[in-house]
Amino acid sequence: MELKHIIAELEKLAPLSLQESYDNGGLLTGNREQFISGALLCLDCTEAVINDAIEKKCNLIIAHHPIIFSGLKKITGSNYVERTIIKAIQHNIAIYACHTNLDNLKEGVNHKIAQKIGLLNCKILSPKKYTQKKLVTFVPTANLEVISNKLFEAGAGQIGNYSHCSFFVDGVGSFKGNVHSNPFVGDKETLHLEKEIRLEVIFDAFKQGEIISALKQAHPYEEVAFDVFNLENTNESIGSGLVGELEIPMPEIDFLNHLKSVFNLKSLKHTSLLNKDVKKIALCGGSGSFLLKNAINCKSDIYISSDFKYHEFFDAENQILIADIGHYESEQFTPEIFYEVISNKFPTFALYLTEVNTNPVNYF
């Protein structure tokens, strides 16, 4: 199978346009036209993971964290990043990373964590703005249904749990084609008035190419009139963190033991117990201290994340219980997302979850 087909499925789930500006996801080594015999899925790509891929005869590694994060000015093997890249290239192994673009999805990294814990009624903890646009176009009355359906098929009109969302209003359009025109209705060089419908649909910004292409293919006019507007709307499907609820509340100690069991933790750091049941839970895989205020503001009983600094624990101010479970520990199930997406599309393709524990942190 060509690598580009696997990449297409990953980016259908998590478009690169959703990654943060500082990130470096996507194809890091290899060629999109490269034939792939098998893929190894992991959280981090390291030298040991490359060895695991060689042993399993995989020439693709799909990782959550990009091994190349900041710029490389030389590749001499002086550190683990350079050595990993050298070994991958020597063995013709492609490396693809799917990082903050997967973090920012409602069905991404944090959703997987919530699944493992057993949360219900999950929502994005900090939804993003400026990720949606609105298309306004004008169509002949008789073509409204066909054009609308083509736009919906391309991904327009999706708002939360609702699809096929649109707005339209009757009006009259005017146009006059020149001698070189080929009008769908009316005559050349003659002013024509046509009953039309103004059609409006919202779409995720990264789908704009597909949306406009679908519009032009379905629209009968030689020249299609349309406008695209940037929206300030908050997108409830894209953003940082997640918040959900347990079906049955649990005492704090019982819930912390539940965390230790689910994530196979030897220990976890937490703030003072508040002596109340845990019901509403906020979480963020990886480094999530920046979302503490959001967790407090939405009245969560506990905030689960990692990489809290000493003084940041004080910021809980007895309003919430912080549970720092570790960076690797919080995101360890992310490769399962890759497995589900690729195996659903290509059920006979060889996929492996790495057996290498890449956690650089040890506990004594």
Description:
This protein has 364 residues and is of the alpha/beta class. It has three domains: 3-98 and 333-353, NIF3 (NGG1p interacting factor 3)-like (Udp-n-acetylmuramoylalanyl-d-glutamate--2,6- Diaminopimelate Ligase, Chain: A, domain 1), CATH 3.40.1390; 109-127 and 239-325, Udp-n-acetylmuramoylalanyl-d-glutamate--2,6- Diaminopimelate Ligase, Chain: A, domain 1 (3-Layer(aba) Sandwich), CATH 3.40.1390.30; 131-231, Alpha-Beta Plaits (2-Layer Sandwich). The protein is built from eleven helices and 15 strands. It has helices at 3-13, 47-55, 80-90, 100-103, 109-117, 144-153, 208-218, 252-262, 292-297, 327-331, 334-345, and strands spanning 26-29, 39-42, 60-63, 94-97, 119-129, 132-140, 167-175, 192-204, 226-230, 234-251, 269-270, 277-287, 302-306, 321-324, 351-353. The strands form three sheets. Strands 5-10-12-13-14-11 form a six-stranded mixed β-sheet. A five-stranded mixed β-sheet has the order 1-4-3-2-15, sandwiched between helices. A four-stranded antiparallel β-sheet has the order 7-8-6-9, with helices on one face. Helix 2 (47-55) links the parallel strand 2 (39-42) and strand 3. The longest helix has 12 residues, at 334-345. The radius of gyration is 25 Å and the shape is globular. It starts with a helix and ends in an 11-residue tail after the last strand. The mean pLDDT is 96.
List keywords for this structure.
single chain, 364 residues, alpha/beta, Udp-n-acetylmuramoylalanyl-d-glutamate--2,6- Diaminopimelate Ligase, Chain: A, domain 1, Alpha-Beta Plaits, 6-stranded mixed beta sheet, 5-stranded mixed beta sheet, globular
